[in-house]
Amino acid sequence: MLVKLLDALVRNAGWLKWVLLAAMVALVIADLLIPTGYDRFVWESWGGFGALFGALACLTLIALAKGLGFGLVYREKDYYKDELVAYQALDDSSENRADTQRNP
Amino acid sequence: MMHELFLIDWPFVEWLSPALVLILGAFLVPVFQGVVQKFVRLAVPGLALIAVLGTAPGTYGSFQFLNMEMTLGRADSLSLVFAHVFGIMALIGAIYALHVRDNVQHMAGFIYAGSAMGAVFAGDLITLYVFWELMLLASVWLIWRNRQAASMAAGFRYLLVHAASGVLLLAGIVLYYTQAGSLSFDAIEIGGTAFWLILIGFMVNAAVPPLHAWLTDAYPEATVTGAVFLSAFTTKTAVYTLMRGFPETEALIWLGAVMTLWGVTYAVLANNIRRLLAFHIVSQVGFMVAGVGLGTAMALNGSAAHAFAHILYKALLFMSAGAIIHMTGRMKLTELGGLYRYMPLTFIFYMIAAFSISALPLTSGFVSKTMILEAYADQQAALVWLMLSLASAGTFLSVGLKLPWFAFMGHDSGLRPREAPANMLIAMGIAAFFCIYIGVRPELLYQLLPHQPVDYNAYTLAHVFWDLQLLSFVGLVFFVLLKFMAPKDKITLDTDWFYRKASPRAVRFIHHYGTIAWRNLLTAMLWPLRQIVSQALRFHGPQGVLARTWPTGNMVLWVAVLLVTSLLLYYI
Hints:
The complex is a heterodimer.
Chain A: H1 2-11, H2 13-33, H3 49-73, E1 74-76, H4 88-102
Chain B: H1 2-5, H2 18-26, H3 34-53, E1 58-65, E2 68-75, H4 77-96, H5 103-121, H6 125-144, H7 149-180, H8 192-205, H9 213-218, H10 224-245, H11 250-269, H12 273-294, H13 297-328, H14 344-357, H15 364-378, H16 382-407, H17 422-440, H18 443-446, H19 461-480, H20 482-485, E3 490-492, H21 497-540, H22 552-571
Antiparallel strand pairs in B: 1-2
Helix pairs in contact in B: 2-3, 2-5, 3-4, 4-5, 4-10, 4-13, 4-17, 5-6, 5-10, 6-7, 6-10, 7-8, 8-10, 10-12, 10-13, 11-12, 11-16, 12-13, 12-15, 12-16, 13-14, 13-15, 13-17, 14-16, 14-17, 15-17, 16-19
């Protein structure tokens, strides 16, 4: 039943998308119209700043992470393979165990 | 008070230590087998939880050791809030691991949870240190028992990093004793070396960058059930010790803020699902560390509340990720996809945890994380507040969107796993219940917090508007940029590169050139000896001047010369 519900949601993804977008617009409008009562920071009185901050934060983090990844820290997955040489027998035996389980 | 409901007059003991229940209970595991053993594995953490719930504030188990005052049970509002969640977590972890047939793992899990509990209840630094090290010795087995080459190597690195930090901690404790004349574990108020050594010792366990890489290196290599225990205890014990020993330490404000961003940035690049979640432990613990650094009542309450909520939702995240690994044998996002149809309950539980960590209203993360942010807003600390809010956006981006999209939704990976075993689902269900229950009824958590009364309402219009806008617009950008979010089958370098690559290279470099220099030095030292030998050979060797065969005529001549000389000398 749960799967049917999830499947129904996935099937109606296009329709759901518009509902969510409408809700987001409504949320921003509500934030613009209803004063929230906080003024510790200047942006707390700006309606819709949460939406702007969320979008900019997401873009900033993606740009920062991708820049860091491609510019400095991405390496191939076997970069540290040298340190596994001493323990290779463990991987071999676990592969054997898996093979035995598949083809007893 | 809650402890009055569970107050039990235990025979023979003044106070039933939950730590000792778990540690001694671990030794019962190998004694039994089959169903009886499963019962024992549930009864031990169950009894420990009852012992925590029945603990009234006070001091228990004090004794003298080598003229030092030791305290096993300092139960106050700060230690009890951590003990409660540790007790709940040990039981959830035991249920999750109920199907596992590996006594070593079960024993390690109980001793680990028990020693974390012991560290939290420790009233002095020596007791704390003993449980601190026991925690390490037990927890490393949860990594090694995965029985893969990567797990063995990661386990040794984990052991070495923590052994080094343990030495720093012990050195700090010894210095502290010589300066302060006391071993009582309260706020460390002396300055100097002792302060920094103890702080660094705690910071390593709290995974504060650049001392954090042991966590993201080791946790993804642990066993499926072991990682759930690991995600809960080590870092949160460290948060407790920072709260106890270093409140209002300004350095922790900035270190905490950097932690939150470090974790979320690396998580965007992660491909291994448990490594992605491990980076978010660093990030979330950053919120707690930042709260400790600020040190106001609201901030400390926020850190304690966030630790409580975090243990439960992070364990649920690790349990869901563990269920995927257990059922599919795969742990990379690039190899997963479309699992929601085959593991729907795991998917739902995962999303509850993901919404909690993202601080969606009506979940536990919302009522705890906003408390820390509110403490910074009260102080009008704009920069830190913005950094923490940026990290909140990143949390939802990776844990709430990227991981579930590429593991449960997205393209069909062709995997057709069955749903996780019942015991795993029950454990996940209990954790999910707490995630929502705390979010809906936060006052139950707030009444456990160390600084009472808690005058805080998370559900103000401003908080709800801010969080809903933040999360929904992060979601919008994620789906707009979906093609850039696809994971890459790569690894990322982190500060562990320094001891995994740079140090071995440095050792090889020093060995190579050191050997050459040593040989050259020996050659230089031998040169005068060789000269002496060659000179000696020149005169006395087989071909030497003095070893030559001389003609008899020469001998006669020289004898005559000597004779004439002696005659002349005689007459003169």
